[in-house]
Each structure stands twice: as C-alpha cells, then as structure tokens.
Amino acid sequence: MGLTNISSKREFMKDIFNAEDKLKKIVCLVGNPNTGKSSIFNSLTGMHQHTGNWSGKTVVNAYGEYNHNGNEYGIIDLPGIYSILSYSQEEEVAREFICFGKYDVLVLVCDMTSLERNLNIFFQMLEINNRIIICLNLCDEAKKKNIHVDLYKMEKILGVPIVVTSTKENIGLDKLRDKIDEVISGKYTFKVSNIKYDDEIENMVHEVLKNMDNSIDFINRRWIALRLIDSDSSFFDFMYKYLSENETSYIKNFKNSFDTFKLEENREKMIERVYKTCKDVSEKCVKESRDKHVRDRKIDDIVTSKKYGIPIMLLLLGLVLFITISLSNIPSSLLSNMFNFLESKLSTFIINLGVSTWIHDMVVYGLFRVTGWVISVMLPPMAIFFPMFTFLEDLGYLPRVAFNMDYLFKKSGCHGKQCLTMCMGFGCNCAGIIGTRIIESKRERLIAIITNNFVPCNGRFPTMIVLSTIFFSYTGNIFFNSIITALIVTIIILIGISVTFLVSYILSKTLLKGETSSFTLELPPYRKPKIRTILYTSLIDRTVFVLGRAIMIAAPFGIIIWILANVFINDISIINHIINFLNPLGKLIGLDGAILSAFFLGIPANEIVMPILLMNYLSTGALIDFETSNSLSMVLRDNGWTIITAINMMLFSLLHFPCSTALWTIKKETKSNKWTFLAFLIPTCIAFGVCFLVNVFLNIIFKVL
C-alpha cells in the first residue's frame, strides 16, 4: 500500500493519468465536506489522512492503493465539494477530476444523518458519469439519532448501488470493497436515469443537442448542453484547459449562438429542480425522530447566540491560552537543561577533534544553540496548544466560531471562512495561509493570506507571555499571575483580530476591491472527539511538521547570527553596527536598536527573538537563555526598559512582518513576488505606525500622571 499527497492539482491529475498503465482500476472518493470521506479512505488503504469536523479540511488530493479479491485498486480522495458549479480552490480540484479524470467508478460518500443535502452532488455527477456507488456513512450516528433509511426503496429510485458504512464501528467496509469490485467488473447493472427538468429547459437542451456536432464526444453531451444554457463563462474557462484547440474553438463559437438564453433564470430553475428531487427522495426513503436533534439545537442556541456566542468563544480562547502557558514552562525548562547538557558534550567532542576555536564556536554556539533554543521553547506550547485546537475541531466547535464571526468579516469586506484560517494561524501562520485554499474568491483569499500574520502564532506567544509576567503580574500568587498573563495575552490577541478587520476592510476598498462573496457554512453535528486521532494529528501532522520546518530554517541562520556577532569592523561587531544604525528608529517607536535588530535577525523563527536580544544586551557573541523571569527582568530594566517599552515590544511582536517560513509559504500559495513583498511590507508599516502612536500617547499620559 502507498499514499501520496500532492498539492498541485495539475501534477496530481497527470500522475493519475499515467498511473492508468499500472493500475487499471481507479476508484474516486467524492462527497460533501464533513461526511467522513477521509476516514473511508484511511480504512480502505490502511493509511492515516487527517480527518476534521469542519468543511474545507482536505485541500489537496490523496492517492492510495489496496488489494481486494486478487485485484489491485488505486483510490483517490478528492477534496470535499458541495456542487460541480463551485469555485473554491479545493472544490475546483474535485470538479475538474470528476469531469475529466480517468477513473472506473465514483464512490459518493454521504452523511447518513443529512442525506437530503448530500444528494445534491449525486444528481450533478449523474449528468457526467452514471457509474456511481453511494456510500451512506456515519450509520452509527444515524442510529443514535433514530434515523432509518429504506435502502431497497432508495436503490430502486436512484438506480445505483448503495452501501451503509461506519468506520468507527467497522461496519460495511468489506461490503463496500465487494460492491466496488462488482461494479468495475461489470456484474452490476445500473438502472439510473437523469433528472427531467421542466419543458422549457428540456426544449433548450434538445435544441442544443440537435445543433451540436456529433464529433464532440469528449464528455457527456447532455451535460455540455445543460452547461451551455445555465453556466457563466468562467465555468467554460476551466473546460478549455482539457480540450483540443479545435474543440475549444467549436465550443466557443457554438456557445455564442446561445447567448440569448436567460442563463440566471435557467440556472435557478435547474437548481430548484435538483433540490426538489433530493427532498422527494429523502421524504420517501428516510424516517427520523426529530427529538434526537434537540440536544444539538439547544447547544447551538447558546454557543451561536448573539448574547453568549462571542463571550463563550473568548472564554475558551483564554482557557486554551491559560492551559498552554501554565503547562509549557516545566517541559520547556527540562528540554533547555537537556540541550545545555548535550551542548557541553558536543563542545567536548569538537574540541577533542582538534578543530579551530572559530569553527567550534560557530557550530556549538551558533548552529546547535539556536536549534536547541527553537526546540525547547517551541515544542512544549505546540504540543499542548495543537491537541486542544484539534479537540475543538473534532468536537465541531470551530464552525460555530466561524458562524459567530461571519457578520464582522462580511462588514470588513472579506469572507466568513477567513475565521477558520485565523484559528489555524494560532498554531502556525503557515497552516493558516495554506488553509485559505478553502476560500473561493481569489481576492478574498489574498486578503486572508496578507492578514493572517496579525494572528499571533505559537512562536510569538513566549515573548508576549514572559513580558506580561515580568511587567504586569504583580501578585505573589502563581495561579493569579498565570490568570493575569493569560488575560494580557488575550487582550493582545483581540488587538490583532481588530487589526485584521481594519486591514481587511482597507484592502477591500483599495488594492483588492470587489464584492463580498456569500458564505454557506455547514454546522456539523457535535461528535465525540477521537483521542487517538487527535494525538496523532496534533503531534505528528502539526507539531512535528511545523517544528521540523522551523529548525530547517533556524539552524543555518544560527551560524549567520554568530558570524554577525563575532566578526568585528573597527573593533565593533557587525551586529553592533546594525544596532547603532537602527537605534534612532527604535527610540522613535518606543523600542531601541537592539530590539529591532533582534526582530530582523529573528526572521527565520520568532522563537529566537528574545535570545538574540539578550545576546545584544550582554554582548556575549552567542545566543543565551535566561534562567528565570527575574534575571531577564533585571537585564531588561538595566537596559532602560519600562512598561512603555514592554507594551510596544508586545505590539511589535504581534504586528510585525511574517517569519521567513511564512513568507516562503505565501510565495508558494500566491505564486507572486508582488503579493509576497506586500505581505512583508504591510504588517511592517502597521507595526511601526502603531508603536509610534502608542509611544507618543503613553509618554504624554505618563507625563500628565
């Protein structure tokens, strides 16, 4: 068995087309988001794709293999899709493969508890390919909600095979394998028929088919006819990429002859007919007790209400931060001690090799010390934060957060799904940037990418936490100090969210003008989180992945930092030349040159900003850690720090430019040097502007007081 994740849809489709020579039987998993599609994929292939409980989780394709009855199958897990006519990036991937991919059977994974909504995509796919197996998944949840489906009647109405499954209870998976084998081998006879629209639509379809050249046989002709009378030009733009030059030219000319059709009116009629058909099938085949939905409705009445929704969200955010702050100190200290021990051993080993002092110091105090610092400071908070974030995700709470924030995002001229990408940014801005693929509009996606930086990632939390502890936690009680620190950090986060709204609004009125897209968000049922999946996803897929990426960038940069601190020009180190140059600018915004140089040199990873700052202040020539908050407090106060300095330091840490890994991710996602540069420039200007105004304001206030 094997699994391949491929972020480029073009490469993916090309690879699968080439795979036809090796794997003659290709199974394609398709369905709405949040139907358990990735869980079905995992169960069939034995692999472990991450599963989530909110729409937009699968933003790339996954390909695996399995054997059954002596046959070898290739299986593709497409991103979740609500409609063939959808235009978000991940839905575009699914749409193009459904329309033009080379596969033997489509397996439509449906949520058995929401069958009427899930059947919409079935009737759309039916116009393209009738070799469809319906997989009614989550039958365990349907049983809990007392939902019963008459499979015999439903299979007779739809004319395709239906299999009931539950990956949680291992129900129906062998039957699904058997049914796939039966369909591909030709043993199953399909009795499916297309939806019949009203006479006006059918007459238009007949007219189009009558005039269509019979040589155009690249796809279902009726489907082409329907698209000609209902779809906009952008839909055909993606089709042209898969047609020959002659076919493209023919379709363009042929399409122009039908421009007199009332496209919007036709589309509405067809959509209405599809929904009515879905409703009819559901009413005939599904029986359910509405009492089982009362619990979810009662919970949603509270967590999505105007009165309680946002306060509950803020309370949970503060709780997550409090737990992260409280529990991460001890493991960070243990890791720091371990790396100090390993550093001494490495130092002894290199000295015994007889290499020069210069090489010894560069490797030990540059490369190794920076790497050790990043791991010891970054790993514990991530290992605590990510499981809690994943827990809320699997529970089904995050879509409720997006629902609560949707109004504010629309008012800011951006997309409601941006809230979900912001949530991902708390762990790592790179994850949030990649997550913007769930946003359909390119304009709104760019806004989400540029503003994701204003959500403090895991790397910026340590700086905010330690400064909050030193300058704002005055009580002698450790518990209350943690509460005060969590409160201060929460306030800083709220400032970042406010800046996100403001910058999004400004961008939507200037560089990225346009209409705000509508936002249809599915609120999934609340589910019991799977602890094993949460731990695997949060610790392996997220923590280890993000940490590894940070180390790859931070480690070599540790050598550069060491060189800057130990190479002298006119008896002054290069880094001190940089500090002196930046000092006037730093003073202007309530900081100093040492702080600014720490931020610029800390661009590989926000975790190393404080160590660089201490190296600057103490002139050690190498990154150093502080033993306690008190020792750090003494160093900072000895170098002229006040509450104003601490406030501006936290604000600059919140608002300043993205780290190099995030910038690299932005470049990959936007494929544009322009937007990558603006993603660096915009937050940098905002950070300098905000700190300047705060510095002036606070100095006036303190003088008056």
Overall description:
64% of the residues lie in helices and 7% in strands. It is of the alpha/beta class. It has helices spanning 9-19, 37-45, 89-100, 115-126, 139-144, 151-158, 173-184, 199-211, 221-230, 233-240, 245-256, 263-285, 294-303, 309-353, 357-395, 398-411, 418-425, 429-435, 442-451, 461-472, 478-509, 531-566, 574-588, 593-601, 609-618, 629-638, 643-655, 660-670, 673-704, and strands spanning 3-6, 26-30, 61-68, 71-77, 105-111, 132-137, 147-149, 162-164, 286-288, 568-569, 572-573. Helix 17 (418-425) runs antiparallel to helix 18 (429-435) and helix 23 (574-588) crosses helix 24. It has a seven-stranded mixed sheet with strand order 1-3-4-2-5-6-8, with helices on both faces. The chain has three domains: 3-184, 3-Layer(aba) Sandwich (Rossmann fold); 199-288, Helix Hairpins (Orthogonal Bundle); 309-704, no CATH class. The longest helix has 45 residues, at 309-353. The model is unreliable at 1-21 and 50-59 (pLDDT under 50).
